[in-house]
Specification:
- This protein is mainly alpha-helical.
- It has 2 helices and no strands.
- The termini are far apart.
Length: 121
């Protein structure tokens, strides 16, 4: 009890020193935390970029395959599938309507193939 004052002052000084050390460490800790956060963001960005490149490659492969199919389908003189639509009369209009339906069916099938290869968007 008689040494209360000096001991209390020593304890207060110890706590002040500890507080000062903690405050001195904070900038270092903040810098290290920021470095880790930025490294994680870079790694995530690289992963996303690689995933986009892979999907882009898949899309290119699908489109190249479709291009190959289109080249096989178009024959000499621009005939598609060996059938040339007439431009006049009722028969020509029916063939053009059938051609439109066939084209819609082909486009639908193309999208089905793309979804199978790449997955849903």
């Amino acid at each position: 009890p008689s040494a209360y004052g000096p001991k209390w002052d020593q304890l207060r000084d110890l706590f002040d020193e500890a507080h000062g050390l903690v405050n001195e460490y904070r900038p270092h800790q903040a810098r290290e935390s920021l470095i880790r956060l930025m490294e994680a963001q870079i790694a995530r960005s690289k992963g996303e970029t690689e995933a986009v490149r892979e999907v882009g490659g898949q899309v290119r492969d699908v489109l190249d395959g479709l291009k190959g199919l289109g080249e096989k389908e178009v024959g000499v003189g621009g005939k598609r599938g060996g059938v040339e639509a007439e431009e006049g009369g009722q028969e020509g209009m029916e063939k053009q309507g059938g051609e439109a339906r066939r084209r819609r069916f082909e486009l639908k099938r193309v999208w089905e193939v793309v979804e199978e290869e790449v997955g849903e968007f």
